[in-house]
Amino acid sequence: MKKFVLTGLIGLMAMWVQAQQQPHYTQYIMNPFIINPAVAGIENYWDLRLSHRHQWAGLNGAPVTTYLTVHGPLRKSDYSNASPTGFEMQGENPRGKAYWRDYTTPPPHPGAGLTILNDKAGPLNRFSISAAYAHHINLTPRTSLSAGLSLGMQQVSLDASKVGFLDPNDPAIGGTGILNRWRPDIGAGLWLYSADFFAGISAQNIIPQNIGYDNGKLVGDSVYRGKLVPHLFFTTGYRLWINDDINVLPSVMVKFITAMPVSVDVNARMMYRDRLWVGASYRLHDGVAGMFGVNINSTFNIGYSYDYTASSLNTVSKGSHEIMIGFLLGNKYGDTCPRNVW
Questions:
Q1: Nearest partner of 52 among 32, 68, 39, judged by Cα
Q2: By C-alpha distance, which of 59, 327, 21, 270 is closest to 336?
Q3: Which domain holds residue 76?
Q4: Which of 44, 65, 227, 243 is the most exposed place for a label (fewest CB within 10 A)?
Q5: How many CB atoms are closer than 10 A to CB 219?
Q6: Where would one find the signal peptide in this protein (predicted)?
Q7: pTM here?
Q8: What's the pLDDT tens digit per position in 18-61?
Q9: Which ranges of the chain would DSSP assign to H, the alpha helix?
């Protein structure tokens, strides 16, 4: 009987050992705080985001990810007047080239944030809650650097009833029903930003941790238990102006995961007057995505993305859908689009 238990555990834990354990996101370019705690408090207001992603729709047991993030500044105000910059802007677009030409860094300040996330894939479910703290400093009149740390807990659950063991009461499984394991969730990051560019580096699951559901009864290769491994992200982007109303934001993300091939995303987003945007993303050896969004007013925005996978999964799935809703809380200066995250 134990042979069947070992076979089931090997297949199950391979999902964790050989695959990415942090969720996929497409709209991280609109909410970099989800991968980098150093972004906390970068704007004048509290930025609340709700996101739901259904990956590989139509495939039974495919990943489904839902999260809430909120972050904001502590003791900070960029703008001394009612307009976003305090300057009289040239032209018809208040967030055109003149706005960014006169950009100056925000004063040094701290920021704080919170992330609540649930990620379900087949019989495995990961729920996490973490708090973040960041501090922002000025390097030049137009460039800032922030460092951030996130601390929390994550619960990794196995629904043993969905694994299909021949004897679910075998003590090697560690129990029946929902089996829970709690582990610390630690992340850190740096974020360099100005009016023209950004660059960030961050890590999640910094401390590798064993995780298993065998109550220590299985010995040998660690694949029987699995391990939570570090994820490292590097992101960078630049703003290009087409005219006073339209700018294009190309960006790249490189992701390093233990025992996995390097993942590379190449993105481009075109913004019209900081109100409407469309974008596209290419993930190396994986697929492409299209996205669009609307900044409806100074307190509400929404974005949607669709991913098409180039792998064999495209024959059994209907692509991946992701929707994100944003609320700009305490946005007293009327910004319709972030000033320091773009």
A1: 68
A2: 327
A3: 2-329
A4: 243
A5: 8
A6: 1-19
A7: 0.85
A8: 455 788 899 999 999 999 999 999 998 999 999 999 988 778 88
A9: 2-17, 97-101
